[in-house]
Structure formats: structure tokens, C-alpha cells
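Retry 2 of 3 after timeout on previous attempt. Resubmitting C-alpha cells to design endpoint.
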């Protein structure tokens, strides 16, 4: 697969007014340069589903806005679908779909149906494709119930479903999603996640930014971590567990009750015991899980063994706190 997004040495700076006496600022304004994005290099292949994560203020949304052409880079190169987003805005916008969770692209006071009709005209979508897509959105996202309701009267979950449909109405090659499941209930999240999985299977490239690690784990194979405008990790989501997940939890179901003292081992911490079932935390960086298992099954009769992987949310939280050296 070819790289359809190529970002090289991307920098984005903003000019911010220095905080001084308000009276002084009336006559003499001084500014400082704030670096939002710092030497970002990123390549994304056609058909990938990538999660971009980071703490508040990490500049994830700034990166998305540069990739969608909303913002102009201060320096560096951004090439998407062989187009420069901020220069080829009209041609480029025909090939992408964008959803910002806290902003809508629908007309606030119009019935939702009218917004879709207007977007059909804006993108010059043929009648056959428009009808086919609307039928798909009605069946999968259930938006048919909201088509005659003004956008301002929709709940957040209802509006997000309609916004997602609106962004896909013209069959874009790339979809940028910024917090698409924010504030949604469990059922609404499930429907949107299943819809996005199916969309990606059909070949659409999807870039997702979110604080919801459930979205990331369920939808994305690759993850990019941004912090303070810098890319600090780029790789498969499974690899991040191997690289940064220090502890593994071993759940052992013994045939007979075992004494806690008998399970003392180096780099192994006893967590809890429930009758014949015991949970042990193993420092996987210092001790092989298999060596611990071998020691246990050589001494005791074991009914079942389960290895619990560390939660991706916990690992990323520790990365934010700089508990890992990720550079």
C-alpha cells in the first residue's frame, strides 16, 4: 500500500500577546512565539486506521487541522493524496470527511434532512450515490428517526450520528475524526464503532483523535502519541504493551488451596486470593512469565492459568507522566 499522507518536519507556531498591563498593551503590543507542533514526521498508508492520542494541550487537534487544510504550517511539508491541503482546498475537500466532536457541520435551525440536501449540492453528489448512502446511514446509524428534526433539538448522540453521516455522504477517501464519541452512551458508541470498522474494511483511511482509550483499543491497530507538540511514539498498539508494559498479572486456579507464603518469588508480588484462585503481579522486564509458570506447575496441581495484559490506558497515562523513556 502507498503512503497517502506524508508529513515531513512539520512545525506550527502561533503568535501570542504577552501578558502585561492592559493600559500598556493599548499603545505597545509585544508578542511571543508559541510552538504548537515541533518537527512532526508522519506517514500513513491507504486503508490504515490510526489513533492519535495525547493529554490535553498536546496539540492533537492542531495536527488534524493542519492535515485537513484548516491551518497553514509555519514550516515543513504536508502532502495528502498528492495535494497540499491548505493550497488545494477546493479539490482536497472533495476527498476527505471531517468530524469535530464539539462542532457540527449541520445547519443549526434546519431539519437534518435539509442539511443533507445542501451537502449533496455542495459536493455535487449524483442522485444514485446519495440515495444509496442515505439508505446505508439510515440502516446502520438509525438517522431516519431524526431527519425531520431541527439540528438544535437533537441530543449529542443523535447529532454525532448525523455529523458522521454528513462527513461520509460524498464517499471520501480519508476521514478525520476528532472526539467522535464524546458524550455518547454505550449503545451509541457501539453503533458508531461498528460502523467505522466496516467503513475501514471497505478501504477508507481513518485518522482518529480521542481521549477514549476504548475507541483506540477497539478500532486502531496503530497508535501515534503526541505530547507538547512532539511525536513521542508511533507504532502498533500491541507493541506498546510489550515495550512499556512492565507488569503482567498471572491468574492461577489451583486444584487445592495454596498458602500465600509458598508463592513468594523474586520480582513477583502477591495481589489477592479467592479460595483456590490466586492473582500474582510479575515484573515482566526482570522475570520471564514462563519461568514463573514452570515453577508453579512443577510444585502444584493447577486447574487453569490466565495472563492479564496491562490496560493500554494505564500504560499511556504513565507515558504522559514520563515514567517511561519513549524518545
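Retry 2 succeeded. Sequence:
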Amino acid at each position: 500500500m502507498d503512503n497517502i499522507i506524508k508529513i515531513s518536519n512539520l512545525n506550527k507556531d502561533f503568535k501570542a500577546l504577552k501578558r502585561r498591563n492592559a493600559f500598556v498593551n493599548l499603545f505597545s503590543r509585544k508578542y511571543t512565539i508559541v510552538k504548537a507542533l515541533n518537527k512532526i514526521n508522519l506517514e500513513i498508508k491507504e486503508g490504515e486506521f490510526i489513533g492519535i492520542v495525547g493529554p490535553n494541550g498536546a496539540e492533537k487537534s492542531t495536527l488534524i487541522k493542519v492535515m485537513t487544510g484548516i491551518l497553514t504550517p509555519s514550516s515543513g511539508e504536508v502532502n495528502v493524496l498528492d495535494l497540499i491541503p491548505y493550497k488545494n482546498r477546493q479539490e482536497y475537500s472533495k476527498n476527505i470527511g471531517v468530524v469535530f466532536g464539539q462542532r457540527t457541520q449541520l445547519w443549526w435551525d434546519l431539519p437534518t434532512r435539509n442539511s443533507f440536501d445542501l451537502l449533496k449540492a455542495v459536493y455535487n453528489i449524483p442522485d444514485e450515490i446519495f440515495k444509496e448512502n442515505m439508505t446505508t446511514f439510515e440502516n446502520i446509524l438509525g438517522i431516519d428517526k431524526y431527519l425531520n428534526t431541527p439540528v438544535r433539538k437533537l441530543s449529542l448522540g443523535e447529532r454525532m450520528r448525523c455529523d458522521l453521516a454528513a462527513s461520509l455522504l460524498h464517499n471520501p477517501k480519508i476521514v478525520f475524526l476528532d472526539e467522535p464519541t464524546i458524550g455518547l452512551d454505550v449503545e451509541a458508541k457501539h453503533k458508531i464503532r461498528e460502523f467505522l470498522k466496516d467503513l475501514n474494511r471497505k478501504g477508507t483511511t481513518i485518522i482518529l483523535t480521542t481521549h477514549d482509550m476504548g475507541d483506540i483499543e477497539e478500532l486502531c491497530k496503530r497508535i501515534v502519541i503526541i505530547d507538547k507538540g512532539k511525536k513521542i511514539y508511533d507504532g502498533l498498539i500491541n507493541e506498546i504493551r510489550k515495550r512499556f508494559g512492565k507488569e503482567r498479572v498471572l491468574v492461577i486456579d489451583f486444584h487445592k488451596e495454596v498458602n500465600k507464603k509458598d508463592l513468594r518469588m523474586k520480582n513477583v508480588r502477591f495481589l489477592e486470593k479467592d479460595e483456590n484462585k490466586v492473582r500474582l503481579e510479575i515484573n515482566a522486564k526482570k522475570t520471564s512469565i514462563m519461568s514463573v509458570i514452570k515453577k508453579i506447575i512443577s510444585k502444584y496441581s493447577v486447574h487453569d492459568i490466565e495472563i492479564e495484559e496491562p490496560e493500554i490506558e494505564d500504560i499511556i497515562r504513565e507515558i504522559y507522566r514520563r515514567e517511561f523513556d519513549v524518545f
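Attempt log closed. The chain has a mean pLDDT of 86.
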